[in-house]
Design a protein that fits this description.
70% of the residues lie in helices and 0% in strands. The protein is mainly α.
């Protein structure tokens, strides 16, 4: 019986001197994400706790005290449910970490935008 394997993304094999800065950062991030595979459940719970406890409460404070628009609430809820759906859907560790860090950056940017 023949089985097919699905390979990951293709990164061209070249020497380190010809790689640009962004490619080096991307490869180090992918290496870091792959090393976190045994901690996938921990990252899932950490993502839910940080998004659910800290960032889902932030729109109430921003809207009430700093007159932020209601779109802050929409952005926060979308990032929370994107993390929840990706993780409960069985996404890999690369997707889990990417959604977590992207949601972290977006929510912190919203908070800083209205605080400063």
């Amino acid at each position: 019986m023949n089985t097919k394997t699905i390979n990951g993304i293709y990164l061209p094999n070249s020497n380190s001197s010809s790689k640009n800065f962004l490619q080096k950062i991307w490869e180090s991030y992918i290496g870091y994400a792959d090393k976190q595979q045994p901690n996938r459940m921990l990252w899932f719970f950490l993502s839910l706790m940080i998004n659910g406890v800290f960032f889902l409460a932030s729109p109430a404070i921003l809207i009430w005290m700093f007159n932020a628009p209601i779109t802050v609430l929409a952005i926060t809820v979308v990032t929370f449910f994107a993390n929840l759906i990706a993780n409960m859907g069985g996404a890999g560790i690369r997707t889990t970490l990417s959604f977590f860090y992207l949601g972290l950056i977006i929510n912190i940017a919203c908070i800083l935008y209205y605080l400063v």
